[in-house]
Amino acid sequence: MELLPFSLFLLLSSWIDLRVNRIPNWLTLGFIPLSLFYHFLWGEGLPFSLTGIVYAFIVLFPLFFFRFLAGGDVKLGLGVAAFTGWQVFLESLLYGLIIGLPLVLLLAWRRVGWQGFKTTFSRYGIILGTRRYLAPVEGEMAGLKVPYGPALALGAALAVGLNHFNIFTLVS
User: Fold this and answer.
1) According to the model, what pLDDT value does residue 108 have?
2) Which of 28, 79, 89, 164 gives 20 to 30 Å between its CA and that of 61?
3) What is the pTM (predicted TM-score) of this model?
4) For this UniProt entry, which segments traverse the membrane (predicted)?
């Protein structure tokens, strides 16, 4: 039963990110205090959530700084860490990154098709051959903004599920 708010958080953030390519602050920043409150009263304790938030910030802020993740994805990770703790957060991030590549390629394929993929890889071949930068053109995969929140949410759901049922854990 305690996983219901977490599941709704993941589903809603994924759905919104797929629809508008953005995860709203009211959702992520609202879930973090809710997680703190839950763990303070009934869960593993306030240090459990706070440690998760600190670890998540340490890991995710450089990814945000170097533009690998957007701000909403980072706040989604902070929400996951506040609820699951640092160990399951690290697993969920790993799973999210593994799930993310095929998911991003699938979403990009859906938007630009085979021609967009061909154009992108041709441009990369020219860049490698000439050692000169060519900017992405319209309809190319490299110019797309593809939501990564659903991949992170799927990774979090997988990590929580595997840990909850004691099937598999990477961090002990």
Assistant:
1) 86
2) 164
3) 0.86
4) 46-66, 78-109
